[in-house]
Structure formats: C-alpha cells, structure tokens
Amino acid sequence: MEKMLIHGGKRLAGEVVIGGAKNSTVALIPAAILSRTPVVLDGVPHIQDVYNLMSILGEMNVKSDFTGNILKIDPTAIVKTDLPDGKIKSLRASYYFMGAMLGRFGHAVIGMPGGDDIGPRPIDQHVNGFEALGAHVIDHNGLIEINAPKEGLHGARIFLDMASVGATINIILAAVTAKGQTVIENAAKEPEIIDLATYLNNMGATIRGAGTETIRISGVEQLAAHNAHTIIPDRIEAGTYLSLAAAMGEGIMVRNVITEHLDAFLAKLEEMGVTMEVGEDSIFVYPSGELKMVQVKTNTYPGLATDLQQPLTPLMLTAHGEGRIIDTIYPKRTRHVPELVKMGADIHVENDQIIIHHSPDLHGADVVAEEIRGGACLMVAGLMASGDTVISKVDNILRGYDRVVMKLKALGADVELLDLP
Ligand SMILES: CC(=O)N[C@H]1[C@@H](OP(=O)(O)OP(=O)(O)OC[C@H]2O[C@@H](n3ccc(=O)[nH]c3=O)[C@H](O)[C@@H]2O)O[C@H](CO)[C@@H](O)[C@@H]1O
Ligand SMILES: C=C(OP(=O)(O)O)C(=O)O
C-alpha cells in the first residue's frame, strides 16, 4: 500500500505549473465516445482517474494512448458493452458513461459510481433528466439500466432541483443527439461545464448558454471531432498550491491558471491578508505576515468551491481568532478534522460547522486521507508541521492531483511515496 511520507516544516519556493482540470477531463473522456472520429485531448493531467477511465474505454474496445500531456482516444471500433462493476466503482465520474452511452447507443447498463465518500451523493437529478428525454430507467439494486424509446430520445425542458454539476453534464451528453431542443433550467455554471460544451460544439453539437443557469441544446444527428481540445487548468489544484504557498512559501509562482475561475477563493485569501500579484495566467504569492481569520461558506460556482474548503483549512490554522467553515454542498465533508487533531490542530465539528482556532504548533502524525480534498488538506498540513507525517490511503490524493510529488519536490518539499504495509 502506497503512503506519502512528508518531512515537514521546510519553507518552499519556486514555481508550479497547474495541470488540466480533473473535473473537466473526467467528463471529456467519456464524452469522447459520442464522436465518430478519433479524439485528441491536450493538457491532460497525470491522475489515477484518467488511467481508470482509459481502462473503462478499453472494456468497450475504445483504444486510447496517453503520451506527454496528450490523450488520443479512438472510438471508431466501439462495441456496446455493459459496465456493471470493476473500474466503474473506482471513481465518481464513471457515471458520465450513462449519458454518453445513452447518447451513442440509446442503451446503457452501468453500476453505481464510486468516488469520494463525502456524505450522500444521490443521482436522482440525472435519472429525472434521462426520463424527461424519454428514456426508461431501471435500478436493479445499484445496477442502472437505461433505455431510449424505439424512436430515440427527444428534447425536453428540464428543471433541476439543485444546480448539480454531474446531472447537468449527464443530461447534456444524452441530449446532444436527441431529436429537438432540450432546455436545462437551474443548470450548474461551473467552468468545467463550459469546457465540455466547447468540446462538444467543436464536434458539431449545438449547445448554447453553458456557464449560465439556462442551457439550450438543439439535437444533431451525430458528432465528429476534427481538432484537438485543450483542457482548462484545474482551479482546485491551483487553489491547493495557493493555500500552501501562503502558509509555507518564500515566494511561489503558480502558473497556468484562469484567475477568474478562482475569484471567490482569491477574495478569501485577500481578506486573510495574503499578498499576491495576480497576472494574466499566473499568480505570485509573497511570504505571508500575520494572517486574519475568516469565515467560509461554500457554494455553487461562482461561490467558493466545496473542493477548496479543506485545502484552505491548514492556512486558516495559522490565523488568529475563531473561524468557521460551512459547506453548504457537502455538510458532512469533515473526515479530515479528526486527522488534523492528531497533528495538534485546534479544530472541531459542531452541527456540521467546522470551527477553527489558531494552531501554531502542528506536528507530524500518522493520518488517513479518506478522500481527495481531505487528503490534500493533510498534505498541506504535513508540509507545515514539524517532524514526519505519514498519509495512508494516498491513492485518494493521486486520483486527482497531477504529478503531485514531483511538483512539491520542485518547490523544495521533502516528500516521497513509499510502499509501506
Ligand atoms: C467529477 C466531478 O466533477 N466532481 C465534482 C462534482 O461532483 P457531483 O457532480 O457529484 O456534484 P453535484 O454538483 O452533482 O452535487 C451537488 C449537490 O447536489 C446533490 N445532488 C446531486 C445530484 C443529484 O442527482 N441529486 C442530488 O441531491 C449532491 O448530493 C450535492 O449535495 O461537483 C461537486 C460540487 O461542486 C464537486 O465537489 C465534485 O468535485
Ligand atoms: C469530490 C471530488 O471528486 P469526485 O466527484 O470525483 O469524487 C473532488 O474532486 O473534490
């Protein structure tokens, strides 16, 4: 079992280049099966989720080749295949094969996805969307079978109960080749949705309004990719390094960012007193002086992302006063809290609110990364702490952080992956 060993307490400096967005990539790869021609993705992050999706593609006789940052996917010999278990369970985004297979074959049999254990993650909005398009959905005890009617899917007006990223993407994937117009109201507005729409539109889809709460899709016969698509930078990876830079940096340049995607997060860092120079596609973080405690409430985009509340937490531990984090998207996303306590943090959970006090003396400990961002939080805390931190279940970090050990080492961190029992 791989674990991450961190000899903490070292000041860091230099630059880090952010990879392509995990949450775009994991939608773009399943979406590739809608194309009748080979697909090329550029800026693909080296993360376990990508390797697992490639393995799922292989089960459908879709060949893929990942060299450098380029992923080539050839769906021309695709075979309609049921995907009941195996790698499907290794990540959340495998549920995008529901919409993509439905769009391509009018039929999908997919096991319920895996992904982070961060509280309840139902897929009722995805199912309601498929049904509105005319599909028949049967849940065979966690094995989801979806069938389009004989005449194919038809456009529909769909109002989401909540602005779900996954449901918005899955409905787009199914609707791009449905007959007629689909309108998704209360759609998610995350940048990854715009990235997906750009990619599909370049294949011949007609999707308008991505990035707003009303998305209109006019169905087309079929899609075919003709150009490579460059994936947007990962705003969550960027936020994680910004938090680390503010906590331990002697001057760190974070490159390849779309700074607008980080507006809410940057505003929070500024409120804390972090000094930054925000360029066109980079952010330089100066060494921090005394920081001010802040109150944090996560929200859907453009609000502060739930995926950034945990990476921000170690930085908040350096500030004076009492801070609170309310995660309105995943209120139970608190599994990192007892692990931080093992490291000497003054932090606890009260009625789903995370309460934080100044904790200047973090020390290394054996901790568990129960999920990706909780893991990222412990990684940042481990780099700040004195002594050694050993993080187990590190695969949860590696499934979403591009070449993280290499990037941290380049900043001067003393970190390695070890095969430990
Ligand atoms: C692969 C990917 O892109 N993952 C991201 C995606 O997850 P994911 O797409 O799973 O998250 P959603 O936006 O769908 O979930 C938002 C909220 O809606 C609820 N909900 C969602 C769907 C549904 O059918 N019913 C329902 O009740 C969820 O439980 C959650 O409370 O968006 C989350 C919220 O920004 C991020 O934390 C994840 O990193
Ligand atoms: C929750 C996350 O991922 P997933 O939806 O893939 O589990 C995340 O990236 O923070």
Automatic annotation (TrEMBL):
Cellular compartment(s): Cytoplasm
Family: Belongs to the EPSP synthase family. MurA subfamily.
Binding locations of phosphoenolpyruvate: 22-23
EC number: 2.5.1.7
Pfam families, A to Z: EPSP_synthase
Principal cellular location given in the protein's record: cytoplasm
Taxonomic superkingdom: Bacteria
Residue ranges occupied by any Enolpyruvate transferase domain in the UniProt entry: 7-407
GO biological-process terms attached to the record: cell division; cell wall organization; peptidoglycan biosynthetic process; regulation of cell shape; UDP-N-acetylgalactosamine biosynthetic process
Catalysed reactions, as listed in the record: phosphoenolpyruvate + UDP-N-acetyl-alpha-D-glucosamine = UDP-N-acetyl-3-O-(1-carboxyvinyl)-alpha-D-glucosamine + phosphate
Listed name of the protein: UDP-N-acetylglucosamine 1-carboxyvinyltransferase
Gene Ontology MF terms in the entry: UDP-N-acetylglucosamine 1-carboxyvinyltransferase activity
Pathway where this protein functions: Cell wall biogenesis; peptidoglycan biosynthesis
InterPro entries linked: Enolpyruvate_Tfrase_dom, Enolpyruvate_Tfrase_sf, MurA_subfamily, RNA3'P_cycl/enolpyr_Trfase_a/b, UDP_GlcNAc_COvinyl_MurA
GO cellular component: cytoplasm
Job of this protein: Cell wall formation. Adds enolpyruvyl to UDP-N-acetylglucosamine.
Active site feature: 116
